[in-house]
Amino acid sequence: MTVGRLSVVVTRRLPEATEARMAELFDVTLREDNKPMTRAEVVQAIKTADVLVPTLSDQIDAALIAQAGDRLKLIANYGAGIDHIDVKAARQHGIMVSNTPGVSADDTADMTMALILSVARRIPEGLAVMRTGNWDGWAPTALLGGRVSGRRLGILGMGRIGQAVARRAAAFGLEINYHNRNRLRSEIEDELGATYWESLDQMVSRMDIISVNCPHTPSTFHLINERRLKLMNPDAVIVNTSRGEVIDEHALTRALRSGEIAGAGLDVYEHGDALNPRLRELQNVVLLPHMGSATFEGRVEMGEKVLVNIKTFDDGHRPPDQVIPDLP
């Protein structure tokens, strides 16, 4: 707990309600535009602030944390994913890290289903035909897609989002399969109607649709690589609403160009907003600008969690969403 009002620096524009509440509670420095802070600006902020509120666009690595002032004691991340923060380095410097888990699971699962439907039923291609004025009327063989009902869905990562995807997919008549670091309890499997695959290779080779819903960690980097893409059926599709680094983007681009797989739906990319230009050229891929959690309600709820984490810390307690690093 600090003496006086807590000094808080926010790196991006947040919902108005969140910013207004922060201004009431803390001595807050808000971002005036929606551009990410430069690294130099973040370094300057952490030299004097008690709390930093970053987002996934801010790389809070060990070198940056080493430049923090003595006052910085909490990094209250706006978002659930924390792979852009070196949590171990923060701990070594006596800085707590918190995040906003459990807020965007349903929103991201909705977007996962939207991508599955968009790729399978060629919705963006239909939209392009209409917008360019090239529609000549209904035809029996025009823009034929694939039926979703009855297809085999393989979910990679069965946490909150993966389970939310499973519930939605089951309602569309998809057969639910999953691969996860740890197998779910039998009662959860029964509720979801989900079949566990211990071998990711075997699951990938037998699915019609792969949904990537696992976090990015050293063990999941390029989990979907060239070898595993070659295991997929030629009429299979893959969607990713999790983290871009889980898929080898260059290998995916080659597989899509060569017809080794039928299509892909992507909301996240291996190198952030530095999109592989060859992906833009492909008709069999649906590209979205990281919209998975982009709902008004979700963004406000994330802000509420940030506020609770900071206020709890200011009151002398551990934030409810404190992230504890995995120690060797």
Protein model, in words:
The chain has about 325 residues and is of the alpha/beta class. The chain has helices at about 15-25, 40-50, 60-65, 85-90, 105-120, 125-130, 160-170, 185-190, 200-205, 225-230, 250-260, 275-280, 295-315, and strands at about 5-10, 25-30, 50-55, 75, 95-100, 150-155, 175-180, 195, 210, 235-240, 265, 285. Helices cover about 35% and strands about 15% of the residues. The strands form two sheets. The chain has a seven-stranded parallel sheet with strand order 8-7-6-9-10-11-12, with helices on both faces. Strands 2-1-3-4-5 form a five-stranded parallel sheet, with helices on both faces. Helix 1 (about 15-25) links the parallel strand 1 (about 5-10) and strand 2 (about 25-30). Helix 1 (about 15-25) packs parallel to helix 13 (about 295-315). The radius of gyration is 22 Å and the shape is globular. The two termini are about 30 Å apart.
Question: Top keywords for this entry?
Answer:
globular, seven-stranded parallel beta sheet, five-stranded parallel beta sheet, 37% helix, alpha/beta, Rossmann fold, D-isomer_DH_CS, 328 residues, single chain
